[in-house]
């Protein structure tokens, strides 16, 4: 691996979602969006439901929707560990839209519905950003 690249692993609870070399990674943390380039200082952060953007060494962009989890950066290695993660090209957009509508109608006081709402929104954003 070149010193000018990151080694990235996006891992869900049940599988390795994506792994490879990248020029940059962008993820949403509890502190806001963070961009990671080669040589980034070591860090450990909590990620929230949102979109992870990986710009590969080959100039491709891979987009994933993730649930809450952790982001670790050290020695040009980026690990994103999430309970659930899905690549944008794997997401069924119509199902995500239906999930969003169902969660909106469930009510603001229902914690599970609010989690489903954030998840559906992240999945829709991932597909739209990848398009």
Can you walk me through this structure?
With 131 residues, the chain is α+β, with helices and mostly antiparallel strands. Helix content is 26%, strand content 45%. The protein is built from two helices and nine strands. It has helices spanning 93-106, 111-130, and strands spanning 6-12, 16-29, 32-36, 43-47, 50-56, 61-66, 69-74, 77-82, 85-87. Strands 1, 2, 3, 4, 5, 6, 7, 8 and 9 form a nine-stranded mixed sheet that branches. Strand 5 and strand 6 (61-66) form a beta hairpin. Helix 1 packs antiparallel against helix 2 (111-130). The longest helix is centred in the C-terminal third of the chain and has 20 residues, at 111-130. It is globular, with a radius of gyration of 15 Å. It starts with 5 loop residues before the first strand and ends with a helix. The mean pLDDT is 91.
Question: How would you briefly describe this protein structure?
Answer:
The chain has 131 residues and is an alpha+beta fold. Helices cover 26% and strands 45% of the residues.
Tell me the major beta sheet: 9 strands, mixed
Number of DSSP strand runs = 9
| Secondary structural class | alpha+beta
What's the overall average pLDDT, rounded?
91
Radius of gyration: 15 Å
Order of helices and strands: EEEEEEEEEHH
* Strand percentage: over 45%
